[in-house]
Amino acid sequence: MKQMFPAASGDRRGGVALFGWMAGMLLFALAGSAAAQCLATGQLKGVNLAGAEFNSSKLPGTLNKDYMYPRNADLDYVKQLGGNTIRLPFLWERVQPELNGELSTAELAQIDKTVKQAAARGLCVILDVHNYGTYRGKTIGSAEVPATAFVDLWKRLAAAFPDPQQAIFGLMNEPAKISIAQWAPVARQTVQALRAAGAQNVILVAGGRWSGAHEWTKDQGGTSNGREFAALTDPLGRTWLEAHQYADPGYSGTGTECVEPDRLGRIFANVTDWAKQNGQKLFLGEFGTPGSESCLAALDAMLAQMADTTVWRGWTYWAAGAWWAANYPMSIQPRDGVDKPQAAVLKKYFQ
């Protein structure tokens, strides 16, 4: 969970935009034969580049007015920080305007452009369907949105992005609109369908509810993520469980104060132990803090807990993106060429 304060879409700075475009083109040229490595043995570390999921009440919305995809300058910044991955949130309704229908040619072109531009910089892209378990307000598994429609979406996306080195499939962001017991079988069915269709890509299965690491093994309506996903299997061994974690007292990503690092350390130790006991791999798809001294200590504590590469396959910080308002506390989008305080902590762990 997190607040969104996208800046007004009309806020443009011509000179800065031109400089960013020229810098992006230079890096693109220098990248030459760089290639994304989504199947690399090392950890995947990066940033969420938000924007394509903005203004979900405006469907389909107008590109570059209601929502946007990452610019070259945004991709360059992730690379400059030392990242090798971006998580790309987008909306199901925009990429597939009708259930079980063809994917939008225009929207698919924008996603494909981002994947190619990222790959040229050696960045892996996580395709993140950012819908919280719904389609046009109706929940997955309902009569209006059967589970088969969700499988259909992913089979089409898999056909469009078959290169496992360039794209990872993030099935559903924080499926909080349905219960864990409802989400888990849909997730397993989707993994099985993708493998049966020949998909070789890494798959990220988000934990139910808000995917919180802090409540991974806590009973929620008769079950838990720990119980439902302990026996998750994949014939390729390329399905990882996606957790999220914020550092405010309610762990929602909406507060500006942070809990003490020791509490976060215990949360990560518990979920890491669970993964080891059950032979599962984890990926932290979202985490972030404001830039205060206490929150930077919390951010450092979370990053330090993911050093165990036998369990943690990587992480993507929430968030960057050109349309975040200047006062959005967790944004690391640089302003006038100046890094946010969180960037210095992240750089330590990008090495």
Structure description:
This protein is α/β, with parallel strands linked by helices and 351 residues long. It has one domain: Glycosidases (TIM Barrel, Alpha-Beta Barrel), CATH 3.20.20.80. It has 10 helices and 10 strands. The chain has an 8-stranded parallel β-barrel. The protein has a two-stranded antiparallel ribbon with strand order 4-5. Strand 7, helix 7 (225-229) and strand 8 (239-246) form a beta-alpha-beta unit. Helix 1 crosses helix 2. The chain is globular. The chain starts with 13 loop residues before the first helix and ends with a helix.
Shape: globular
CATH topology: TIM Barrel
The CATH level-2 architecture is identified as Alpha-Beta Barrel
Mean pLDDT: 92
Percentage of residues in strands: 15-25%
Low-confidence segments, ≥5 residues, pLDDT <50? 7-33
The SSE string, one letter per element, is: HEHEHHEEEHEHEHEHEHEH
**Biggest β-sheet strands, sense, barrel:** 8 strands, parallel, barrel
Tally of helical runs: 10
Helix content: 25-40%
Give the class-level CATH name. Answer: Alpha Beta
Structural class: alpha/beta
Structurally, the number of domains stands at 1
Task: Tell me the CATH superfamily.
Answer: Glycosidases
Strand elements, count? 10
Distance between the termini: 28 Å
Task: Give keywords.
TIM Barrel, hydrolase, 10 helices, hydrolase activity, hydrolyzing O-glycosyl compounds, GH, eight-stranded parallel beta barrel, 15% strand, 351 residues, two-stranded antiparallel sheet, alpha/beta
